[in-house]
Amino acid sequence: MADVRRPKYFNTGGPCRPHRDYMLDPLTRLPDARELIEGGAHFVVHAPRQSGSTTILGSLAEALTGTGSYAAARFSCETAAGTDDERHIQEILLHAMKDSAEDSGFPAACLPPDPWPEAPTGRMLFTALSAWAAKSPLPLVLLIDEVDALVGPALDGILRQLREGILSASTPFPHSLVLCGRRHVLDYRDPDESDLLDVSVAALRLGAFTFEEVAELYGQHTAATGQVFEERAVRRAFEVTQGQPWLANALARDIIEVMSVPASVPITDVLVDEAVRRLIEGRPTHLDSLAGRLDEPRVQQVIVPILSGRAPGAEHLEYVQDLALVTRTHPVQIANPIYQEVMVRRMQARFGLSVTPGERPRSGAYAGYFADVG
Fold it and tell me: Among 49, 170, 314, 374, which residue carries the largest CB count within 10 Å?
């Protein structure tokens, strides 16, 4: 009897775990990051929601700490969202750093000071990180996720303190800082503070899966269970998702776990099309959030012309591209056919945009995909 390994799952919620989820090697998706970190660079990463950035940052931290040469921790700014009290925000972030260091299994000598040193609000983060760096025998690496949860003066104040620490030649400070958000962090800062992070050496962008990566992801399931994704099914899944990670996982999950297609039955392009229909009509949180973006006037100014068969203007285009709603290619198109169908339906329901089912999506590369979806 063939040895069949325990199957894993296609993850559509939270970071991927190697023991539980089918996943690509996270470190290959952001190949320049480790070299930059090891060289002591400070840089930004911008990635759309649910594209794998949290998994990648966590894997980077684990890999670096695992070498024994660094103490690397990933933490999120999301817990500080919803408050504009600068001191309270910094207290939340310092607490998140401490928790992350403890959860990462740092040697005792590399753990943050307990308690953090006292400092005025405008110096609180700078003082804490300086004290931590002075205490730790290993270089500190901090991967700061969801930085776009902070806005306005709070973000400016934090960036100002980070910049001071990075530029100081005499003050101990973390070896490398990585700031990750949906968009370039400088897009959120006060326009008058244009030099706040001019010390960053790079801005890395996390892209979608390639066709080969989607095939590899689905191939892991085949290897674990024997259930085959036919080549036309893989190609169809890539066509309708254009490699968007959450969508690629969601289609496979729906077919295997929700539709419960037996392992003895090959997965075909017909099953992929059925999963696409179910996904669009089921309105999961990912697609509902996408539809909600269309309420933003600056998003509408880019999306409506594209859906109407016209080229969008340059204003707000980069913003919408950073949200991964449209392509960076020329001509600009909606990021993938599934997004485009969701947008058409939303525009019809909310704004009366007239696009008949037989015509949509109207951009050339996606024409006809959903002509018979009512």
Answer: 49
Average pLDDT over residues 61-76: 97
In the chain, alpha helices (H): 26-29, 33-38, 53-66, 86-103, 124-135, 152-167, 211-225, 231-241, 245-253, 269-282, 285-293, 297-307, 317-322, 337-351
Q: Give the closest residue to 240 by CA, choosing from 331, 307, 339.
A: 339
Domains along the sequence of the chain with CATH: 26-205 (3.40.50.300), 211-282 (1.10.8), 285-366 (1.10.10)
334 beta partners: 326
| Sign of the dihedral defined by the CA atoms of residues 158, 160, 166, 172, in that order | negative
pLDDT band at residue 311 under the 50/70/90 scheme: very high
Residues facing 110 on adjacent strands: none
Is residue 130 within 8 A of residue 165, CB to CB? The reply is yes
pLDDT in tens, 314-351: 999 998 998 899 999 889 999 999 999 999 998 887 76
Between the alpha carbon of residue 338 and those of residues 160, 172, 242, the distances in Å are: 41, 49, 9
217: three-class secondary structure by DSSP = helix
Angle between helices 231-241 and 269-282 (to 10 degrees): 30
Beta strand pairing call for 176-181 and 71-76 = unpaired
Instruction: Provide long-range contacts, Cβ within 8 A and 24+ apart, for 36-41.
Output: 36/176, 36/201, 36/202, 37/64, 37/70, 37/72, 37/141, 37/175, 37/176, 37/178, 40/139, 40/175, 40/176, 41/176, 41/200, 41/201, 41/202
Q: How far is CA 357 from the centre of its chain?
A: 32
Task: Note the maximum CA span of the chain.
Answer: 69
